[in-house]
Amino acid sequence: MKNWIILFACMASWGLSNPLADIAVLRFSPITLTAIECSVGFLFLACIRMVSSKSPRPKIKWRYLWWIGALQPFAAWMLGNYGYKSATASTGVIILSSEAIFSLFIARLWLSHKIPSQAFFSIFLGVVGVALAAGGSLALGGGSGAVYFLFSALLFGIYSAGMRKYLMNEDPFTVAFAQTGVSTFLALIVLVAFHPHFGGAPIHVWVAAISSGIFGVGLPFVAFNFLSGQLSSKVTGSALNLIPVAGVAASALLGRGIPTAIQTMGGVLVLISIWGVSRTQ
Q: How confident is the model over 131-152, as pLDDT tens digits?
């Protein structure tokens, strides 16, 4: 029962981070917000690492982790934050859920993983669902946001395939800690280059930014990496369906936008698609 509670909390945490980022990006630039999120997530993981009694520390494969960290969370989160500048959090949650579809196609092209014939219809539904969600965003004047979200989801697919190819047998926490450190380093370099500005943001915006780093970058990494050794990949993979549900619910509660009827239809199709693909694995 404890593992299931952690699993649901993990998915809810990822979903909650979307509207929190949407709130924070109102006063912080996407670059500044990305630096805050990556730094907070890294510091959170660093605290966990310091109190951990695990010894010895596993070696780190830096030749892969430097670009893994550049992709996720740094580049993917920055694109998502740019998306929130012109689109609602609900739109972002729906479109970003296409990560599973991108992951499947990239694994097929890069890792030569076979796509079961039964999965093609589910994939088609997912593509239609993302198109509806993005089309709804265009109708609301948030077209550029939809594009940013799609590229963010694409980067997650590349990152996922890279993890499977090069780091699948490595210690999950060590990988998460190292890649988040790389993301933080890159985010701070970009932030300094673009002259950061932190003044004038009210306290609730700071709380949203810091919370987005904890709930989106730090906490889910720890929880999901723990669960990877406790529950089957089929269970944890299917549970990803809960992220857009939690994200849309949190967006509505925090006043960050309710999806239109067309976007809701698209979101339902994406959920059906991910569920159908997970059933064929």
A: 776 665 555 555 678 889 989 9
